[in-house]
């Protein structure tokens, strides 16, 4: 019966062997290397089986007469079976981990009658490591092919068990009848191996088994070419999680990019984690996994580029494999030009050059060249030459001539030349250059020339004023003649006033360089300034000099009291006159250039009634002894649980600026901006951080950034404001250059002016109004921000305001704020004019590349920014009014809002643009008034005085500086007495006419269609 079972199992085994052959089971994956495959051995396997009645080798041939080997055993009816089958010695080939694949069939013990007690359904697999084939030395068998019992036990003890192998499926008698094939496949891994080879052994303890095939293999990462790098076949490590790093070799004509290429071989024989790569070297390109040479007319210079590129314009590559193209004759490249940039040449001369002479200064302006040479780095150089007195030659201008912003390397198309000699002929050569001009040695330079003749200049400022003898009511002054008188000095004008009372000053004249000023108060500090006059006019006043009178030593109380009473009465009369003037004129939309108090007016007159200022005024948080009290008085405390931080949108001095939703109970969720105070702050930093919240919390206006609240009871400390989607105005305009209509831009300006009007009415001076401090929301609504910085002006004119947040450029600041630290709403108006210029130029930098010192000098010399491209003339006139030297002549914010409203209601008034000639003519004009075009008054001062029979005073008015009706309209009774109108009847007649003049001017300004 046992023989019949062997026949049964043999039938099943051979059925499987044939099936494997027909299914192509001989094919193995590329990452597996066979060390043993019983199916591929030709001839006997030569394995050792003992005892001899145990495992039996069955050899047959397939349809191609190739040998097929299988081993089987089926001694299930006998007890204490211990049948061993040993393989030959298997060389590992350096592998540290191998895999054993067994294919076998096994009989179900329950299907064997009478063999249940002794039958098994498992067998064991063992291995034994050694550095050599011990069978070659006859150690595994005796001369009869059998091992004695002692040797057998000794040899078996060397083997280490790998596993007990069980069948997933076993066959029965019925399977044989139906020829159902139930072949089992089991795979076990073995390692780490440390010696050159090993034996396998299979132990049967009483099962009915057919061992169809045994395959021993290891896995390796196969040869791979990837990203132009070759990685050789690699045997992985012994540990399951171990990766073996392999450095690849770049293929021919390729180089590593940044770092050598590397990959990692896993224990499964797979390439993982590629790092780095190879690229074709310059002059080659990758085609089908190899590097091919670039064709003629093409080049490749950078490793980062993938393919050869056609030579850019005006360049050629005459040989294959070019790494760069050569420029054609007359064209050039500099080292910093990228390889794909066309070769370029020097530009042609500038075009449309024009000049505007102002005494001893000249403003030059030109257009870009017709031919830029194909480059964007066009710069301009100015060559200044002075005509010799005899007219027969030219010489270069001296070192005293100043060019603003500079003479060489100009990026903008204009320059101001100052400190020229008067009544002198000059020739200016304007040259355009670019990056390759220095390389073009054979290129003839091209210029455009301008010839100008300067006028007589006013004298330069008096440099020093000295104090001589000092009395209780007088001070003796002396000074030196100006360094550059530019003509014969006719007289000097001395301006003085009591310190902190600069709105009420006195002017006296002297033909000498000394003067005793009388009528001063004892023990009082006075400010003195001196300027000279020639036939060309007055020069600028000297800097301010402070001198103090002597103490009042004798008691003359009655006369002093009488003087005080007299002064009080005079002041009261002046005040009544001013009030009467307002009542008569009736202020309307629009503004005049009448003198105004430096601070914002606190009362407004409408229809003869006094309107008192609003109750709410700004309160400086510094007045609180405890800064926390100010924060909690003006800002709402928000529970930190109501805030979610989603992303970081910027960084400030004190910490990060984030955005996220604010969810207050009973209110809709809203997006907010969140300023956080970084960890490790000092108490002073915390106060400074919350100071801005104390200021913002006092404001409530649609054009002022809204404070939602603060978080002070947990960390980090936060300031919560509304979220402005479009960020700062300057950046927003640069990103959207030319994308808005003029009406949209004017609407933005109107919103800013409205917010500043609100701040001015509250008595708050911003001090840092600039486009960078204006925020824009999704509806293009502009809101004023940045209220938290305290500013101290440095003495160095090259510096800017020193703030806790860094440097604030000086080019936004009014000249009196720079010179005298005098910040008012009028200085904010100057800054607003600069903001207007920024908006209309789409975020261009004011004064371009001029240094701070040059900006200060230029503004002092009446230089003003030219009108931006395509800027309406009405807006540029408003800018010029904001930049009036005298702060009292600048418009107020309520007047600015009113004028902008008129422009918005009448868009046709914005069609007239600032043309080039008008831009030049206005650059050096100190007083350019918006209502100058609106005025219908054409009389001179002399004609007006003659019309009221007061022509005798014409010369006195001229000497007093009242040379236009605009300045006359600002005169008071005190001004009349100062110029020499002492008769009461004449004063009354002139004052009455001045009041009528004011009414006429105001009505004209109110009704004019700008």
UniProtKB/TrEMBL annotation:
Q: Matching InterPro entries, A to Z?
A: Eph_TM (IPR027936), Ephrin_rcpt_lig-bd_dom (IPR001090), Ephrin_rcpt_TKs (IPR050449), FN3_dom (IPR003961), FN3_sf (IPR036116), Galactose-bd-like_sf (IPR008979), Growth_fac_rcpt_cys_sf (IPR009030), Ig-like_fold (IPR013783)
According to the UniProt record, which cysteines are disulfide-bonded? Answer: 74-208, 109-119
Annotated ATP binding sites = 649-657, 675
Q: Tell me one GO biological process term.
A: axon guidance
Gene Ontology molecular function, alphabetical: ATP binding; transmembrane-ephrin receptor activity
Q: What is its main location?
A: membrane
Domain Eph LBD: from-to ranges: 32-226
Catalytic residues (positions): 768
Location of this chain's protein in the cell: Cell membrane
Under the heading PROSITE patterns, the entry gives:
EPH_LBD, FN3, PROTEIN_KINASE_ATP, PROTEIN_KINASE_DOM, PROTEIN_KINASE_TYR, RECEPTOR_TYR_KIN_V_1, RECEPTOR_TYR_KIN_V_2, SAM_DOMAIN
Q: What is this protein called?
A: receptor protein-tyrosine kinase
Q: Which organism is it from?
A: Monopterus albus
């Amino acid at each position: 019966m046992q023989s019949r079972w062997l026949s049964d199992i043999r039938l099943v085994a051979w059925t499987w062997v044939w099936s494997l052959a027909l299914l192509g089971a001989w094919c193995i994956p590329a990452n597996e290397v066979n060390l043993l495959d019983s199916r591929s051995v030709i001839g006997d396997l030569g394995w050792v089986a003992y005892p001899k009645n145990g495992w039996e080798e069955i050899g047959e041939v397939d349809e191609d007469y190739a040998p097929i080997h299988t081993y089987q055993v089926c001694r299930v009816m006998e007890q204490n079976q211990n049948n061993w089958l040993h393989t030959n010695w298997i060389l590992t080939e350096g592998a540290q981990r191998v895999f054993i694949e067994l294919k076998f069939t096994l009989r179900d013990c329950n299907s064997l009658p009478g063999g249940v007690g002794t039958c098994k359904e498992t067998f064991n697999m063992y291995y034994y490591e050694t550095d050599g084939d011990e069978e070659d030395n006859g150690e595994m068998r005796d001369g009869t092919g059998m091992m004695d019992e002692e040797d057998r036990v000794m040899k078996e003890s060397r083997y280490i068990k790998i596993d007990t192998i069980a069948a997933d499926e076993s066959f029965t008698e019925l399977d044989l009848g139906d020829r159902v094939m139930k072949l089992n496949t089991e795979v076990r891994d073995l390692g780490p191996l440390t010696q050159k080879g090993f034996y396998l052994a299979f132990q049967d303890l009483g099962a009915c088994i057919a061992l169809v095939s045994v395959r021993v293999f290891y896995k390796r990462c196969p040869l791979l070419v990837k990203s132009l790098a070759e990685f050789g076949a690699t045997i992985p490590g012994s540990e399951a999680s171990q990766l073996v790093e392999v450095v690849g070799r770049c293929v021919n004509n390729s180089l590593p990019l940044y770092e050598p290429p590397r990959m990692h071989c896993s224990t499964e024989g797979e390439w993982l984690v590629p790092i780095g790569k190879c690229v074709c070297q310059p002059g080659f390109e990758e085609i089908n996994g190899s590097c091919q040479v670039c064709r003629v007319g093409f080049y490749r210079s950078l490793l980062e580029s993938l393919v050869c590129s056609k030579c850019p314009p005006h360049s050629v590559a005459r040989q294959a494999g070019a790494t760069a193209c050569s420029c054609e004759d007359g064209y050039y490249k500099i080292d910093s030009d990228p390889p794909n940039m066309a070769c370029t040449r020097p530009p042609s001369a500038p075009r449309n050059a024009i000049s505007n002479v102002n005494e001893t200064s000249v403003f030059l302006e030109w257009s870009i060249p017709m031919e830029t040479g194909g480059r964007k780095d066009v710069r301009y150089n100015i060559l200044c030459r002075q005509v010799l007195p005899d007219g027969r030659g030219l010489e270069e201008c001296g070192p005293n001539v100043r060019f603003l912003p500079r003479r060489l390397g100009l990026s903008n198309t204009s320059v101001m030349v100052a400190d020229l000699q008067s009544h002198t002929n000059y020739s200016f050569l304007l040259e355009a250059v670019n990056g390759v001009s220095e390389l073009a040695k054979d290129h003839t330079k091209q210029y455009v020339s301008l010839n100008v003749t300067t006028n007589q200049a006013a004298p330069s400022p008096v440099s020093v004023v000295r104090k001589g003898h000092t009395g209780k009511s007088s001070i003796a002054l002396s000074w030196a003649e100006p360094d550059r008188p530019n003509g014969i000095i006719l007289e000097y004008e001395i301006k003085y006033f009591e310190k902190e009372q600069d709105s009420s000053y006195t002017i006296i004249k002297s033909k000498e360089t000394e003067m005793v000023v009388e009528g001063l108060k004892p023990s009082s500090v006075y400010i003195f300034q001196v300027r000279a006059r020639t036939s060309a006019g007055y020069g600028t006043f000297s800097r301010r000099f402070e001198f103090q009178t002597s103490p009042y030593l004798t008691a003359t109380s009655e006369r002093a009291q009488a003087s005080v009473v007299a002064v009080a009465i005079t002041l009261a009369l002046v005040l009544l006159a001013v009030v009467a003037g307002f009542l008569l004129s009736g202020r309307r939309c629009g503004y005049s250039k009448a003198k105004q108090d430096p601070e914002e007016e606190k009362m407004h007159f409408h229809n003869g009634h006094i309107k008192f200022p609003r109750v709410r005024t700004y309160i400086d948080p510094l007045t609180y002894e405890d800064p926390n009290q100010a924060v909690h008085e003006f800002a709402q405390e928000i529970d930190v649980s109501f805030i979610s931080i989603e992303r970081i949108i910027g960084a400030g001095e004190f910490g990060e600026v984030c955005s996220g939703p604010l969810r207050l109970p009973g209110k809709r969720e809203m997006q907010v901006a969140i300023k956080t105070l970084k960890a490790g702050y000092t108490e002073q930093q915390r106060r400074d951080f919350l100071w801005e919240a104390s200021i913002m919390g006092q404001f409530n206006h649609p054009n002022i950034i809204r404070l939602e609240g603060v978080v002070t009871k947990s960390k980090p400390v936060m300031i919560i404001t509304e979220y402005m989607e479009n960020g700062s105005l300057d950046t927003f305009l640069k990103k959207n250059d030319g994308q808005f209509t003029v009406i949209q831009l004017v609407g933005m300006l109107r919103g800013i002016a409205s917010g500043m009007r609100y701040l001015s009415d509250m008595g708050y001076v911003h001090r840092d109004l600039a486009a960078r401090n204006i925020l824009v929301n999704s509806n293009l609504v502009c809101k004023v921000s940045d209220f938290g910085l305290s500013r101290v002006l440095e003495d160095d004119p090259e510096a800017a305001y020193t703030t806790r947040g860094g440097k604030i450029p000086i080019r936004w600041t009014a000249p009196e704020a720079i010179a005298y630290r005098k910040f008012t709403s009028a200085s904010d108006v100057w800054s607003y004019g600069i903001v207007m210029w920024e908006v209309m130029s789409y975020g261009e930098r004011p004064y371009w590349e001029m240094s701070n010192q040059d900006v200060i000098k230029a503004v002092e010399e009446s230089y003003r920014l030219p009108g931006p491209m395509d800027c309406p003339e009405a807006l540029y006139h408003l800018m010029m009014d904001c930049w009036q030297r005298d702060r009292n002549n600048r418009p107020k914010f309520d007047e600015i809002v009113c004028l902008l409203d008129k422009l918005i209601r009448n868009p046709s008034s914005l069609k007239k643009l600032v043309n080039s000639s008008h831009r030049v003519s206005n650059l050096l004009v100190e007083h350019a008034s918006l209502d100058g075009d609106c005025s219908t008054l054409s009389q001179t001062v002399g004609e007006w005085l003659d019309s009221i029979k007061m022509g005798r005073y014409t010369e006195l008015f001229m000497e007093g500086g009242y040379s236009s009706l605009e300045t006359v309209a600002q005169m008071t009774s005190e001004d009349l007495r100062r110029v020499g109108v002492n008769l009461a009847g004449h004063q009354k007649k002139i004052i009455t006419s001045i009041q009528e003049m004011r009414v006429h001017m105001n009505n004209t300004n109110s009704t004019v269609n700008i």
